[in-house]
């Protein structure tokens, strides 16, 4: 609403809720801020020392002055309560709740690239037709995904601005989260945790396609992954599709 022109597209099912929360915080903090700035300067000018009038020093501890402080507290505390309740609700939906998935992708961060493992035509992770891509995540619109986020070395952060999604990747842990893309397009993924000298060179792209286009991509790529697995040149079972992603190294 207020910040729309400053924000990237809202491409996940929960992006609009986070944007609404931003708007509410901007209004509930911004309006009291502007009012207090106005009063601050208005009172300085109104009550400054004038000819024949000496400026007064008021400590504000007397009851008749204290009531003005208490009256301002009530709306401020009410606004805080509204912000906390809304923030907890959005946090719960995005981070605590894990809706039932339709597909699962593995996201593996390392200095300084992303490996994305997509399920093949069988829609099951860890099989021979899995599609492994470097710095390219392919997803379908209106499909609920779980992601399993890992790091091979240091702390990274999987940030997809159009999803309003940010999640730290912690070495030794597999962190599960979810998203559901709601608009098609190609957007940025960026590491959002300083992870070494190449941190700024760690961008990737997310490709959100229609269900039919994505299905065609999965068919094509998983067939290619299977063909590579069974190629006489690579030997059965030694192709990239059968290599555990944590053993694959990316050099840039
Ligand atoms: Cu990183």
Label this structure with key terms:
2 domains, Immunoglobulin-like, disordered C terminus, 5-stranded mixed β-sheet, 252 residues, single chain, elongated
Describe the protein's architecture and organization.
This protein is an alpha+beta fold. The chain folds into two domains: 4-96; 103-247, Immunoglobulin-like, CATH 2.60.40. Helix content is 34%, strand content 23%. It has three helices and ten strands, in the order H-H-E-E-E-E-E-E-E-E-E-E-H. It has helices at 15-46, 63-96, 211-229, and strands spanning 103-110, 113-118, 131-134, 136-140, 145-151, 156-160, 165-169, 175-179, 185-191, 203-209. The strands form two sheets. Strands 3-2-1-5-8 form a five-stranded mixed beta sheet. A five-stranded mixed beta sheet has the order 4-10-9-6-7. The chain starts with 14 loop residues before the first helix and ends in a 23-residue tail after the last helix. Residues 235-252 have low confidence and may be disordered. The structure holds copper (II) ion. Residues 109, 156, 191, 193, 195, 199, 202 line the site of copper (II) ion.
């Amino acid at each position: 609403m207020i910040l729309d022109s400053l924000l990237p597209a809202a491409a996940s099912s929960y992006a609009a809720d986070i944007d609404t929360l931003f708007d509410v915080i901007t209004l509930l903090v911004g309006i009291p801020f502007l009012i207090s700035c106005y009063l601050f300067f208005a009172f300085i000018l109104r009550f400054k020392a004038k000819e024949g009038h000496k400026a007064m020093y008021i400590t504000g501890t007397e009851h008749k002055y204290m009531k003005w402080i208490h009256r301002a507290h009530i709306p401020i505390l009410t606004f805080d309560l509204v912000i906390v309740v809304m923030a907890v609700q959005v946090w719960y939906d995005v981070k605590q709740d894990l809706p039932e998935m339709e597909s699962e992708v593995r996201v593996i961060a390392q200095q300084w690239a992303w490996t994305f493992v997509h399920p093949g035509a069988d829609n099951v992770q860890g099989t021979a037709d899995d599609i492994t891509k470097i710095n390219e995540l392919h997803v379908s619109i209106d499909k609920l995904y779980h992601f399993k986020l890992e790091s091979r070395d240091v702390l990274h952060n999987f940030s997809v601005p159009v999803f309003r999604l940010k999640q730290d990747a912690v070495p030794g842990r597999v962190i599960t989260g979810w998203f559901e893309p709601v608009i098609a397009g190609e957007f940025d993924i960026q590491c959002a945790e300083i992870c070494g000298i190449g941190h700024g060179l760690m961008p990737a792209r997310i490709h959100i396609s229609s269900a039919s286009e994505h299905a065609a991509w999965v068919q094509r790529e998983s067939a290619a992954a299977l063909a590579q697995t069974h190629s006489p040149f690579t030997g059965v079972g030694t192709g990239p599709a059968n290599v555990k992603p944590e053993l694959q190294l990316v050099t840039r």
